[in-house]
Amino acid sequence: MTYYIDTNVLISYLFVSEHNHIISQKILENIANQRHTLYGSTITFVEMYNTICRKIRGGRWKFIDPIQKYLEKITNSENRCKLVIAIIYELLKERLGIKFVDCKDLYEFEKFEIGKHALYVPQIFKVLLEELTPKLTIRFKDLIHLAYVYMLSKICNIDIKYFLTFDVEDFGKIKNHIKQALGIEIVSPLSPP
């Protein structure tokens, strides 16, 4: 089985101060121990990096060990961000086998027609504009993740079946529609299947 991991699940896994940390740790390590494949996209990675750097500067979160021990020795927040993302990337690959994937074909520019006008956009955005936005009523930051999962499967031959998220409020309302429209099952450790 293949899973796409939403950023909120990864953040909960990495920070012991997150209220879903234990749940995230159990579910991700269980999936990895069963030798299922965990994926994140470059959008997941960038969003995770942004969140982590904001939280490091705010000093509000405590990381899992050994990350926390290393961070306490570095005072410059920019250097902390760079160090922690390198450590996290290796940790996620080693502990969970997570693969952050992308595909250059998603960024090939294509024409999107708007009435008498045309706009040239990356293919991933064309799919958002033509196929996903008209069908799915969900916030853009969630929709972009769905677009990546959909396109990684459709264009890049990475067959992702499950989208693992803690965002039950947004995805829960339309999870059946997502499965029907995109063939992706939304799963959350916080709600029954």
TrEMBL record:
Note one Pfam family from the annotation: PIN
Record-annotated PIN domain positions = 3-60
Q: Which Gene3D superfamilies match?
A: 5'-nuclease
InterPro entries, A to Z? PIN-like_dom_sf, PIN_dom
Q: Give the top-rank taxon of the lineage listed in the UniProt record for this protein.
A: Archaea
Under what name is this protein listed?
A: PIN domain-containing protein
Source species, please? Pyrobaculum islandicum (strain DSM 4184 / JCM 9189 / GEO3)
